[in-house]
Amino acid sequence: MIIIATIAVYFCILLLISLLTGHKADNETFFRANGKSPWYLVAFGMIGASISGVTFVSVPGMTLTSDMTYMQTCLGFIVGYFVVAYLLLPVYYRLRLTTIYTYLQTRLGNRSYKTGAAFFLLSKMASAAVRFYVVCMILQQFVLDKYAIPFPVTVVVLVALIWLYTRRGGIRTLVLTDTFQTLCMLLALLLIIYKVVDVLGLNLPQAVQAIAADSHSRIFVLDDWVSTQNFWKQFLSGIFIVIVMTGLDQDMMQKNLTCKTLREAQKDMCSYGFAFAPVNLLFLALGILLMMYYQRVGQALPAVSDDLMLQVIAGGQLGTWVVILFTIGIVAACFSSADSALTALTTTFCVDICNQRKDERLRKWSHLSVSVVFVLFILIFRYVNSTSLIDAVYTIVSYTYGPLLGLFAFGLSTKRKVNDRYVPFIAIASPLLCFALDMIVSNATGYKFGYELLMLNGLLTYVGLWLNKAHLLSKK
Predict the structure, then answer these.
(1) pLDDT tens digits, residue range 247-289?
(2) Segment (H or E) for 88
(3) CB 407 within 8 A of CB 115
(4) Angle, to 10 degrees, between the axis of helix 171-199 and the axis of helix 39-66?
(5) What is the pLDDT of residue 389?
(6) Contacts of 42 (CB under 8 A, 6+ apart)
(7) Domain coordinates in residue numbering, the chain
(8) What transmembrane ranges does the database entry give (predicted)?
(9) I want to staple 128 with a disulfide (CB 3.0 to 4.6 A). Which of 6, 68, 341, 471 is the partner?
């Protein structure tokens, strides 16, 4: 009951913020927050939106199988945020875009525009469902199974709560709720680390020394080019992951486009870009501390990396307060990513697919419909997932965001025209070719593509667009 009470109080605070920000809200408020968001609030809130509940579960567990090598990807993230801030944001602000995919219409054509928007709808719906699945799964495991509440009911109720506090104010509400949720998440993380360090009988300097001396503290892999943890693969993948998951993602860019000026949006982007690496370092450090705890109490390490934290929390070995803090952290992280996803999906559907910016009735029905489809995606993922949650997210990203990467890269790096009619086929063929190549190479050589699959996918789309133009010239 403590967890349910915690969530109830947490939701009441979110609903209060929604009531304050949703007063007299219209479509301009829902889509763009009237272009008046303070950049520092957007920056702080974006930390929580970028991390999500998947980080709470999967990143500490990654130390079991790949040490702290995920930091190589996080270093690439920093570079990626600067690329987005100084390459993509100026384009979006110059064109005064409500959705970023409108750029594809002005540069490549209407079918390219619709293709980009459609890939975003599929990509964001799938990846956001994975992230939100985390909080549903944890609540089910910790509390609701005891009361024989079915998992589908858990999903429907939680998504309904998000729909309730986002349905009026939209993005204006999210700027403030994300700020509150990020604060809750970071406080929960720090207090959980403090509790684990205390249980281990260490002070802070001793804990830092113990983490540094641990064999799992390895960050850089510079000698093994075959390994998916190789530095350059991870670092470059990190750059491109941010470019596509932030710079080419309406969900992440919608908040940045609510800043008053381009300069403020760039400050916002760079600020939370720098914050991303130390926050993930804390999660990885927590993973090592948890392994020390398992060793201290003589408990076997879990076979599944995602269970490293969940087993300790579920067992209640660290006390009731840690269970409460973990609940707050995971709910804050999951809600902050899911609520913005539903808002962005609604915006893209109304503006890009239906070409309706001012129809409030359509926007309200679309928001409700998107929420229903979101529930269905979460339930589907529950029955098909067979991998680490963080890997599941990045696998989805690699296959579905790759065509977006290729479309935008082609548009920004060249002035060539394309035959807009064939663009949808190119965008669909690229991920299919990537999947086939991955299977062939894996069976022939044993090499398995990692996060670099995203770059390959984008490259294939880019080449397809280039050959599309070459085909037109040869016909002439």
Answers:
(1) 988 988 888 889 989 999 999 999 988 888 899 999 999 999 9
(2) none
(3) yes
(4) 40
(5) 57
(6) 175, 255, 256, 258, 259, 268
(7) 1-385
(8) 6-25, 37-58, 70-95, 116-141, 147-166, 173-194, 231-248, 269-294, 314-335, 365-384, 390-410, 422-443, 449-467
(9) 341
